[in-house]
Model the fold of this input.
Amino acid sequence: MKVLVVGGGGREHALVWKISQSPRVSKIYCAPGNGGISELAECVDIAATNVPEMVRFAKEHDIDMTVVAPEDPLAMGMVDALKDEGLKAFGPTKDAAVIESSKVFAKRLMQKYGIPTAEYRTFDDYHKALEYAETVRYPIVIKAEGLALGKGVIIANNTDGAKQALKSMMVDNVFGHAGQRVIIEEYLTGSEVTVLAFTDGKSIVPMVSSQDHKRVYDNDEGANTGGMGAFSPSRMYTAKVAEQVEETIIKPTIEAMAKEGRPFQGVLYFGLMLTEQGPKVLEYNARFGDPETQVVLPRLKTDIVDIFEAVIDKRLDQIDIQWDDNAAVCVVLASGGYPGEYKKGYPITGLDRVMEDPQTVVFHSGTRKIDGEYYTNGGRVLGVTAVADDLDSAVKKAYESVSKIHFQDMHYRRDIGRK
Ligand code: AMP
Ligand code: GLY
Done:
């Protein structure tokens, strides 16, 4: 069968890599893809957000299944548009993807259905938000309502910080329309865990747990990024916690979406805080996480195409999904300056040496291939993933591989997966 993957980052590389292992797949396209992805798929020069072109391509090339990975095309209704043409597509419809694209929707859903999350207030009015910020106990968390590339969350430690954040979101519009409405919520403490779950709208199969590292520097210092690394499993996510999360969060969320007339089919991402009062939802995403996918999929034993098909055909309960009892760690190598400004186009060396290692796989986030050589082409450039029997060995292996790779001004965290 012919599969089209929409997107062009490390997550999509991991998806293409896993799909390429399916004996059922004869050809993979990826739009727009990237340098690394071009080894396994034919990259197609269509932007991930170009819905009409994507649908036309899928029709013209008799694509049997399109996997829509990033949030923007999901929020724009790419899955709806493909389905309207009678094409098979993996991912939630626009109505269901709203669980990520509107944080206010997500918070109201949780409130209505008693799903544990941080206390919050919503503001459309800058002055009212400012007034409120004078009265609260710090720290507080300020979130832009809409999609903001994972960067629309600011933790304010005092009134001044809150004022600055509110001004940048609501007056200076640094996140555009996404920041016109904000949520101010209670600051939660505890351990963060990511749980991705396959769901066909009725049945739910949680994947193995993972954790990502969002801050740019070691010890979780510096600005938030799209993710500087990840590991799986989480040390905190015991069987007991997993059961509690399934009963109090995962199942109620899927049921709530069905009751709201927005049945969710695809992968639902649960960003959780394990607090002293129990697990609470920090955020939902309507898709696979990045870089969590780069550590979760290498542990999946089952053919992912079979799972995607079962989700699309609403028969997820009939398939047995198996995982390896091992661990994976992904260290992201970023361009100098990221998550701020950075330069592109530096040659990358050492990849061939790493690729010889059966325990390591390098997923490309931002690379270009020119005349057989790789060049940097994004803020996050590579995700070096190592798989081993346990987390400590996977950490060791990942950093051993990282030490062989080089490009100018490369930077990365040294503490991925260590705690
Ligand atoms: P989000 O995009 O909502 O996951 O937020 C990004 C990051 O901000 C999360 O991964 C947390 O580290 C942090 N964060 C978000 N909401 C809260 C909260 N209520 N309390 C503490 N930290 C939070
Ligand atoms: N790793 C966070 C995200 O995918 O949004």
Observations:
- The two ends are 41 Å apart (CA to CA).
- The first strand starts at residue 2 and ends at 7.
- Residues 150, 212, 227, 285, 289-290, 292 surround glycine (ligand 2) (CB under 6 Å).
